[in-house]
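A quick aside before the break. I want you to see a complete sequence-to-structure record at least once, exactly as it would be stored in a machine-readable document. Don't worry about memorizing anything.
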Amino acid sequence: MERSRIARAGELTEVQRIEVASGAPFREIGMTLVADMPPLPLDALAAGQRAGRLWVATDPADRPIAFVLADLVDGAAHVQQISVDPAYARRGIGRRLLDGVAGWAATEGLPALTLTTFRSVPWNGPYYVRCGFRELAGAELTPGLVELLAAEAALGLDPAERIAMRRPVPGPDPGGGSAAERNSR
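That is the input. The structure line, written in tokens, reads:
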């Protein structure tokens, strides 16, 4: 089984490779614009890595196979990007990374995770619903999420297909420890 940790500075190009590889399934459903989008810039990944908000899941040889980059948007932990190398897809790695971000958010006192995604792509909106997220209605959108959705539309992504989602984060454990540690007690 994989483990997760903060990405190392020397792994940022590998993180970019994972993001590019994770675009292949979009090509298979005719979303070539998404499949051909460039990965996050190295400076954005480096900033996330230095801030302790870029996590990787690694294989038994400690090589990255998936990643998640979180940011802060309107007082919530925002999942800026999560990608799993297609060779490792459908194994729960993305869900475990999301749960790790939720654990981090709880320790930071943040109330929720947010993200923007495609409404009907099976491994996007429907997947995130299974991971505890819900779609936000127009009145629930925070200014930062509205700004992110507008920036995505400016890149050519169909605003009718883009949604913002939110998942509550349980408060910090008064007894200490991670959710996994509490569940094993």
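Two observations worth writing down. The helical segments are 12-21, 24-28, 32-35, 42-50, 93-107, 125-130, 143-154, 179-183. The beta strands are 3-6, 54-58, 64-73, 76-84, 112-118, 134-135, 162-168. We'll return to this after the break.
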